[in-house]
Amino acid sequence: MSKPLNIGLIGCGFMGRAHSNAYLKVNHFFKREHRPVLKAACARPQELEKLKAFAEAWGYESIETDYRKLIERKDIDLIDICAPNFMHKELTIAAAKAGKMIVCEKPLAMTAAEAEEMTAAVEKAGVPNMVSFNYRRVPAISLAKQVIGEGRIGRPFHYRATYLQDWTIATDVPQGGMALWRLDVKVAGSGVTGDLLAHSIDTAEWLNGPIQRVVAATETFIKQRMHVETGKMEPVGIDDACMFLAIFANGSMGTFESSRYARGRKNFNTFELNGELGSLYFDLEDPHILQYFKYADPATGKKIESHLTGWQRIHVTNSEHPYMGKWWVPGCTIGYEHTFVHGFADFLAGLEGGEKFQPDFRCALRTQKVCDAVLRSAKEQRWLEVE
Which of left, alpha, beta for 151 (phi over 0: left; psi -120 to 50: alpha)? Predict the structure, then answer.
């Protein structure tokens, strides 16, 4: 018999939908003892009508407009934080003190200092926790991790990542409010560095190890935008674009680029790793493909005959590929929403005696420290060590 895991979700926007969908699907495809129950959804009083519609659409049993009441409820086991970044610290510390399990959207916090406090709180409380860097659970990226672990890339030399979008180019796009809070530095903390590059950094360190040093540059192309809440033109404090160089602990070199001003790019998230024995390349807009170049046999170091070398497009839909054995037959692809299902499946497995879920708050704190170093480097225009 399954054990109900009662979910209290805070935030009814894009991520709230993604998480709710995953909770509803996870037990249909992954055998777990725990079964998520959509017990309550929470949002601010001014969003009451939106909250009611959200709760009805996804099947939440109840609603709350005060997060304190939600966290105090005895019938809530897990608090899922899908609220804007500036609320993460307050919500996390309150939930930890109440002894609730915690799921938090990325980035973990506004700053590394906040993330330190949050991590200390959840570790003191001893509550299970996860941060939703969902791209680790793209089967092709998980396969890349496996290929690297098998020694097929050999000594790494270069890691390069891009994360490009184009939705803020127009000068008449406002900032602030529930829809555009990512453009308001007081709510988001940063621009593309925290929103997009946090994903790239988490993936890079998962695949290639810790980043030791960075040097960065940022740009805000449109300096003023109308603020939704005040109706006035106000300075834009977030970074529209960021690029940085990195040195990894293993001696390899990295380049990272992110922008919301890349016309034609909607969610262009890529990485390439070049090593002594081979290379890997991935593009999120072609998510079921992992490209692999094999230069030499990892077991013997013997070079592949030159007339047989070339980039191989691996169609990551076979049952032996990560997660794919739980879905459809080979050749049938899955999508973005499945990465959240995989994340919650792994989190539940950790509750049931399996491998501890990663990334947790401690791991996401590390990503936050890299983000902080990147932003500080851009401001000071010099190389910085990552703490």
Answer: left
- The pairing of strands 156-164 and 233-235 is unpaired
User: Residues 284, 289, 295, CA angle at the centre, nearest 5°?
Assistant: 115
Give the separation between CA 383 and CA 214, rounded to whole angstroms.
6
Q: How far is CA 100 from the centre of its chain?
A: 22
172-204 confidence digits (pLDDT tens): 999 998 889 999 999 999 999 999 999 999 999
Structural domains of the chain sorted by starting position, each given as residue range(s) with its CATH number in brackets: 3-134 (3.40.50.720), 136-385 (3.30.360.10)
CB atoms under 10 Å from CB of 372, counted, come to 23
Total Cβ atoms within 10 A of residue 311: 10
Give the mean pLDDT of 266-288. Answer: 97
Q: How far apart are CA 310 and CA 312, in angstroms?
A: 6
How far apart are alpha carbons 94 and 245 in whole angstroms? Answer: 37
Residue spans of alpha helices (H) in the chain = 14-29, 48-58, 67-72, 88-97, 112-125, 139-149, 185-188, 192, 198-208, 336-351, 361-380
**pLDDT confidence tier of residue 309, bands split at 50, 70 and 90:** confident
Tokens of 58: 């996804």
**Segment holding 35, helix H or strand E:** strand 34-42
- Tell the residue number behind the tokens 């790019």, with chain if given: 265
Q: What is the dihedral of CA 184, 21, 366, 185, to 10 degrees?
A: 0
Residues ≥6 apart with Cβ < 8 Å to 210:
248, 249, 366, 386
